[in-house]
Structures
1.
Amino acid sequence: MLSAVSATMLCVTSLAGITSNAAGAETQKLNTYAVYCDVESGSGVMWADVYFRYNNIDMDSLEIEAGNFGGDVTHSTLERTDDTVYSASFRADGAIMAPGVLFKSKFWTTDNMTLVDGTMRTSAFDATRKFMGNDIVEDSFVLVGDANNDKVVDLDDETAVIQYLGNPTDYKLSKEEYYAADVNFDGVVNDADRKLIRDYNNGVIDWFE
Ligand SMILES: [Ca+2]
Ligand SMILES: [Ca+2]
């Protein structure tokens, strides 16, 4: 099932004016986006590919890492006239039966990153390289820090994390909200993430590393 979420127009007030670094140079607040590819239990997936296109923005950097299964992951981007193609391939050491994250990738952009509708797809293959389907691996595209999934990072997201940490029964986070709230990319949502969202909102940091 495709679960690509288009990042719609996002108004971020630049706090560059009150942010400074050691050199005193102006810095610019960046939007951080993340893509997660994961599987449910009993998937049997060993190989996976993801492909999508996004608006041809000035992407400052990109990071990709394997999830909780280890394995190898490679990626590439191809800039075209109207958009940019992102693709990544994952290979585990063996068939995956536990649920979890195959790999995740982060993007830092000065502009709003929007997927081209319908382009995001994942393909799964078993240990014999047999094609399993395009709906075995689930992809999530999130604005990092946007814990309440309203396409903007602000004080409400800090509140959402506080509520979740204090009462996860009444203040649940969806899978994508959880991924967005895990701003330090360590696999869990806790007070460290809440502090980073606060720092971002206060202009102490300009992106989520
Ligand atoms: Ca939000
Ligand atoms: Ca975290």
2.
Amino acid sequence: MIQMTLIQIDNYGPWTVTPNPRNESDLQILQAELFADVQRQIAMKKGLVFYTRFDNMLAVTNGLNEEDHMRIQRSIRNRYPITISMGVGTAKTPYEAQKIATEVLQKNGGAQSEDRTEILAIDSLVKPEDSFVQMAHIDINGITESLTDIIPAFDTNFLVNKAQHYLMTKLIEKGALLFFIGGDNFMSPCNELTTKDLMEIIEEIDEEIDIPLKAGVGRSDNAEDAAYMADLGLEEIRERNNEELVYVLEKTN
Ligand SMILES: Nc1nc2c(ncn2[C@@H]2O[C@H](COP(=O)(O)OP(=O)(O)OP(=O)(O)O)[C@@H](O)[C@H]2O)c(=O)[nH]1
Ligand SMILES: [Mg+2]
């Protein structure tokens, strides 16, 4: 079972324009700092946050309990001009877990409700013995030589985005999520996705849009170790000169 937390800034839309629109650069700084801050606190417990929309972030939070979530909310309230609400859900697939996390928060009021402040809505928490996270770290082959050092930066960025869109479209059908994590890298929480499914997705994308991908897959009882095993998987693929495009590693305690 995977546990996911939706982190949502309370009443952010209205706040950004009250009493007058705030400078965009200041909003960008607030959002980047909030992401780094929440990431640091969730990472202390081996969770992993994806910045998603910045005003809404999704995190894999296996190992974090109610108190852990509350402490983050309190710390943000004490130091920022905004507060955050959270919804927590668990399921067999990441898609289902974030759906439950969203629904349980939505029941407590809207994102732009003046009455909703610092809600912590927990549908369920994963028990230690049921905790399982599978992460795929997906990466474009040879982006530096084929794109970064050749074509304009914006065009490379556009192609990375295109790869992301294709990956998301195919992964969501299997209950898996996909987040851009920088450079030419994507991270997919993907409990229940088989190696065969992932291989097929990578092959299809190469055929459809000519972007060659590889993926390290990691498994553990928490997000941090699963992502780390996925990174090691990618290194294995590189060492074998991309002969296999998917490599799976399991963390045994
Ligand atoms: N977030 C994140 N970014 C990375 C990571 N590794 C590399 N990057 C970024 O992605 C860029 C591309 O790196 P690589 O994927 O190693 O380079 P490549 O040219 O595609 O080479 P191969 O992937 O080995 O075929 C780097 O310049 C970094 O900016 C990582 O583990 N995480
Ligand atoms: Mg690469």
